[in-house]
Structure formats: structure tokens, C-alpha cells
Design brief:
13% of the residues lie in helices and 15% in strands. The chain has 220 residues and is of the alpha+beta class.
């Protein structure tokens, strides 16, 4: 897989848990404007990251027994991910951008590619339908924007975010990425339940965490 950018048109949407209205980490609902941007069609692979690591004298991530190549890269912390995106002329997507793209735009699907829980397996690689390791990217169906693995396979680091959602119409309190160690993951992974792949679901962890289930995707 090569570096392939997808144009995301941007727009206005309702960010957060607009489906069950019960996930307190994704409430209150609030309208967000997203400017047009570009996002990688596929999660970053070992092949791509290994080329970056070799060119910049960074550590090679541990593949945990996988064959590397076109499997989604893992064992990278937030700073590794941000550095890779910068190397290819991009950046990590903001959380607003990630959710907008995963949900397929303003119409907002529950999972990337579908709102029908019975069809999730066709779009999402999760704990109960996959083996316990990251898979080759692009093997499930894409979402409405032609993006693969926005749900499942590996969880994805994002860039700009705010810790607590604002009331609709209020300005958010953005997290200072230089001052705070917490970071946000989106999309769920092969090791998680399919519910975690819901497009509004968010999880926090420390920026220095490296995991066999966390990878990345870049924006610009």
C-alpha cells in the first residue's frame, strides 16, 4: 500500500453520542464546523513506518511476531505517530476531523461504514471476528468516504482535542498538547469489543504508551 490521500469535504455536524445519548465521555452533543482536509485512505503500515524509521534513525516498532509489510503498524507512541505524519508532509487529525471522516460526514453513521450493528463485521475488525494481532490494512469494506479500517484493526492516535465537550454553542477548552500528557485514541482495535468502534467513542491514554493495538493515520 502506498501513501494515498482522500479529500474530505468538511462541513457541519453534531459531534458526540447522538445515538444512545449515554456515553458521558461523548456528551454533551455540540455542533462542530470542520474545514476541508485530507486523510490517509489506509492506516499507516509497517512498511511505511519502517522506511521512516530507517531514514530518521528512529527505533523500529516491535511487530510482535507479525510479518510487518502491509500490516498496520503498532508499538508507536503519540510522538512517534506525530513525527511520521510530519515526515510525509502531514499531521495527526484533530478529533473533530477524525469523527467527521469516520462517520461519513454530517449524516453520521454509528459505525464507520454502517449504522446497522448486524453488518459491523463487514467493516470492522474487532475482538470476536479476528485473530489477536494487527491485520493487513484494507481487508474490510471502506466507509462512505472510501476510508478503510476507521473502525477496528488498530486504534488510532489523534492530535488536537478537548478533554470535556462544551455545551452546544459554547467554545471548547482545547487541551495544550505541549503541557498535558493525556492523548486521545479513536476507532477501537482487533483486541476490543465492536462497540468501541462506534464513531463517537473516545478513549484517553498517556502520550508515551506503546501498544500492540495502537497505530495511526495522518491528515493534512
Amino acid at each position: 500500500m502506498g501513501i494515498e490521500w482522500v479529500d474530505i469535504p468538511g462541513g457541519r455536524y453534531l459531534m458526540g453520542d447522538a445515538f444512545e445519548g449515554s456515553n458521558q465521555d461523548a456528551l454533551p452533543l455540540h455542533h462542530v464546523d470542520v474545514a476541508p482536509f485530507r486523510l490517509l485512505r489506509y492506516e499507516v503500515t509497517f512498511r511505511q513506518y519502517d522506511a521512516f524509521a530507517g531514514a530518521t534513525n528512529r527505533r523500529l516498532p516491535d511487530a510482535s511476531g507479525t510479518t510487518r509489510g502491509d500490516q498496520a503498524v503498532v508499538d508507536v507512541d503519540w510522538d512517534d505517530a506525530a513525527a511520521f505524519c510530519d515526515w510525509i508532509g502531514g499531521r495527526l487529525p484533530s478529533e473533530r476531523e477524525w469523527e467527521f471522516a469516520a462517520a461519513g460526514g454530517p449524516g453520521k453513521q454509528l459505525f464507520p461504514g454502517t449504522s446497522d450493528p448486524d453488518s459491523v463485521d463487514a467493516f470492522v475488525r474487532h475482538r470476536t471476528n479476528s485473530v489477536g494481532m494487527p491485520g493487513v490494512v484494507g481487508r474490510r469494506l471502506p466507509n462512505a468516504y472510501g476510508l478503510f479500517d476507521m473502525g477496528g484493526n488498530v486504534a488510532e492516535w489523534v492530535g488536537a482535542f478537548y478533554q470535556f465537550y462544551p455545551a452546544d454553542g459554547e467554545e471548547p477548552d482545547w487541551v495544550d498538547l505541549g503541557d498535558r500528557g493525556i492523548r486521545i485514541l479513536r476507532g477501537g482495535s482487533y483486541s476490543m469489543e465492536p462497540e468501541i468502534a462506534r464513531t463517537y467513542w473516545r478513549a484517553g491514554t498517556l502520550r508515551e504508551v506503546r501498544s500492540p493495538a495502537i497505530g495511526l493515520r495522518c491528515a493534512r
